């Protein structure tokens, strides 16, 4: 039996701004067994003196794409699986070093990568994945350019599948694709419900999929006791997705105040992604981003921060997401920097811990410091409730990182 005791800790539990001091936490076989304001007796346990620093849940990034090795999705497709996997190894290792003990790959991630992480072949965070994104013909994950004419129907044909998505049209095809991704172990289903920045043939304002198609996909997820998440930029796509049963909205970049209130009333979740917008604005042209994508990116950038303010004012349930592509994955911690224009440190800490766990349907197991939860923990050299920049320092201000009870970093001995 492996036991670790963290002693003399200030604890942020994932929820409360009132951080108890002088606390002890017992870890046993990968699980938090006890949280106490008194010394914990555990003969033979490894003891780590937190010395008044902050012990808190490991961070959760609810929007990554581990295989997305370039800003051009077609380039990613052409590089094939070995290159994409090598990229994923570096990206996931960097995320863990930054204190992200859980990630949700919301497009492209698969069972082999999840198994490699779980079996210790790849050093990385706990890995949830949505499998291939479902897109209609000409939708956001149909990466063919307007000049390409071929299209062969059928789930496994080269014309309707790429590394990140599958192109489906009609209720029957949507049902089959959703079932196939769930069969492959997907933790949820992702659809593209609007146009996007990186796709070559659809404007951002475009609504995608019919009502019957979205409802059919949602039904398949519900029957599997999971949920659908939808890529959405404009208000129209956000509203119809939530109305049709989608549980989580990705991006919501162009949301307005009225729609934010409407989403909050219905209890849907939103994962904004400021990093991909503002980092791509900084380096996208240099890294080869297409000119039309840069034009669309500017539209997103002009509205993004105001959209955060609308959602904060309305009380929308928000998760932490980054969506960084290609070599920009090393900017993952800057999401705290961008969000700090609107949110307090406590709000951001909740977004990156307990709210992320809710989105993953893992509340009480992840994103918290409580008995029975997974022992995914970080020790911060300081108080992130006063200085969120401690978490935006690419792991340099983290003295310890624990994932599933395994100590992956320890500067406290």
TrEMBL record:
Residues 54-408 form the Amidohydrolase-related domain. Coiled coil: none annotated. The keyword Hydrolase applies. Gene3D superfamilies: Metal-dependent hydrolases, Urease, subunit C, domain 1. It holds the Pfam family Amidohydro_1. InterPro entries: Amidohydro-rel (IPR006680), Metal-dep_hydrolase_composite (IPR011059), Metal_Hydrolase (IPR032466), Metallo-dep_Hydrolase (IPR051781), OTAase-like (IPR057744). The keyword Hydrolase applies. Keywords: Hydrolase. GO terms for molecular function: hydrolase activity, acting on carbon-nitrogen (but not peptide) bonds. It comes from the Bacteria. This is Amidohydrolase. It comes from Sphingomonas panacis.
């Amino acid at each position: 039996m492996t036991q670790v005791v963290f002693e003399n800790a200030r604890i942020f539990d994932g929820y409360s701004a009132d951080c108890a001091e002088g606390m002890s936490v017992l870890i046993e076989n990968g699980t938090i067994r006890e949280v106490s304001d008194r010394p914990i007796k555990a003969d033979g346990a490894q003891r780590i003196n937190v010395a008044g620093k902050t012990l808190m849940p490991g961070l959760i990034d609810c929007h990554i794409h581990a295989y997305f090795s370039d800003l051009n999705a077609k380039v990613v497709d052409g590089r094939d699986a070995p290159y994409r996997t090598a990229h994923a190894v570096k990206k996931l290792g960097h995320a863990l070093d930054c204190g992200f003990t859980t990630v949700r790959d919301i497009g492209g991630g698969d069972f082999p990568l999840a198994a490699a992480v779980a079996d210790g072949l790849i050093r990385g965070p706990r890995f949830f994945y949505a499998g291939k994104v479902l897109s209609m013909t000409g939708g956001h994950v149909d990466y063919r350019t307007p000049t390409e004419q071929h299209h062969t129907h059928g789930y496994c044909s080269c014309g309707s599948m790429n590394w990140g998505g599958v192109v489906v049209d009609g209720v029957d095809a949507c049902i089959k694709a959703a079932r196939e991704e769930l069969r492959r172990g997907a933790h949820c289903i992702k659809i593209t419900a609007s146009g996007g920045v990186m796709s070559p043939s659809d404007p951002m304002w475009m609504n995608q999929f019919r009502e019957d198609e979205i409802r059919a996909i949602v039904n398949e997820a519900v029957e599997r006791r999971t949920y659908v998440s939808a890529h959405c930029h404009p208000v129209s796509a956000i509203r119809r997705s939530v109305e049709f049963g989608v549980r989580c909205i990705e991006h919501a970049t162009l949301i307005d105040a009225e729609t934010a209130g409407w989403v909050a009333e219905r209890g849907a979740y939103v994962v904004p992604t400021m990093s991909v917008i503002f980092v791509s604005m900084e380096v996208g042209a240099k890294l080869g981003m297409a000119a039309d994508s840069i034009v669309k990116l500017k539209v997103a950038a002009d509205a993004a921060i105001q959209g955060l303010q609308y959602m904060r004012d309305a009380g929308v349930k928000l998760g932490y997401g980054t969506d960084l592509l290609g070599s920009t994955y090393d900017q993952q911690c800057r999401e705290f920097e961008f969000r700090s224009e609107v949110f307090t440190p406590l709000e951001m800490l909740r977004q990156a811990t307990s709210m992320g766990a809710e989105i993953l349907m893992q509340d009480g197991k992840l994103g918290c410091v409580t008995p029975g939860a997974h022992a995914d923990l970080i020790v911060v050299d300081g108080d992130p409730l006063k200085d969120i920049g401690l978490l935006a320092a690419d792991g340099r201000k983290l003295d310890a990182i624990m994932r599933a009870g395994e100590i992956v970093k320890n500067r406290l001995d």
